[in-house]
Amino acid sequence: MNEELILDKVLELLKTSGVEKAYTKLIEELENLKKPSSRVYYFLSCLAAVSEKKEEAIEWLRISIEEKGHWSRTEIFEDSDLDSIRDDERFKKLISISNDRYAKALYERRFICTLDSENKNFMQDKNTKFALILHGNNQNNEFSKNYWRNVFPKDVEIHYLQSPDLESQNRFSWIRGKNYSSDIINILNKTKWNTSNQRIICGFSAGCNVILNLIESNHNICEKVILVAPWIAKPTDKLMENILKHDTEILIICGEKDSYCIDMVKKLELLIKTKNGKINVKYLKNTGHTYPIDLEKIIAKLLPEKETD
Predict the structure, then answer these.
(1) pLDDT digits (tens, 9 = 90+) for 84-116
(2) Strand (E) or helix (H) holding 130
(3) What domain range is 26 assigned to?
(4) Residues 148 and 241 grouped into a single domain
């Protein structure tokens, strides 16, 4: 089981059974993780801290920062879950180390797009099929590849775009309220992206909102989008105008238990259908805010047969 699924299960257990059981469960699951990220140790520290296990809370942070060399965005450690250890000098020292590493990483941050480094001879004509994938928050390009690398047939060029905004070591997020459109459009304009007329942009969670912002900024950015567990803002008139202007097809996969996203997905679905736009939504039973295990099969059913042969 991957880290994201484990943390999702721990959060669900926290809601249904309380802190102690969630904490015990996450400790047990550590054995199933080959290389736990800083996020796992952060979860452990928070759960220990709110359980009044102050020494354990400090120790989890020490392992993460001193032994593993992790760091995280400064604001993460302002979480009230850590208030019981905030005045501890050991906590202050560890956070200082993390903050120094974070500050250094900020100088080196940038978008990472595999269009810049992989197969620069792709897309020789407008019939070349192309897919660009945007990760969700607290993820990266490698995380996206684990889910998307086998989704499309071999004649589709698949590439990945990673946010420049740091969450923790090797984890990146799309900042709420920040518009990345002009930067991303500039990146794509330096490639052969615009020579194709079969372009799909796909995203997970907050990455989906970045995609809709792109369409709002440029109606001709792609022909189709695939949004998985989409965390999206209220659609604007300009977004709707551009979706209809370019006849962009919207495919959405959303869990019926995804409390973060389902209401806005239903509003977007109704709005596009009311205006006779192209939208197809797959609601998944017993699924929350996560990737479906059978993503490849679901997308194959959503896409026209000619695109999946």
Answers:
(1) 999 999 999 999 999 999 999 888 888 988 864
(2) strand 129-134
(3) 3-106
(4) yes
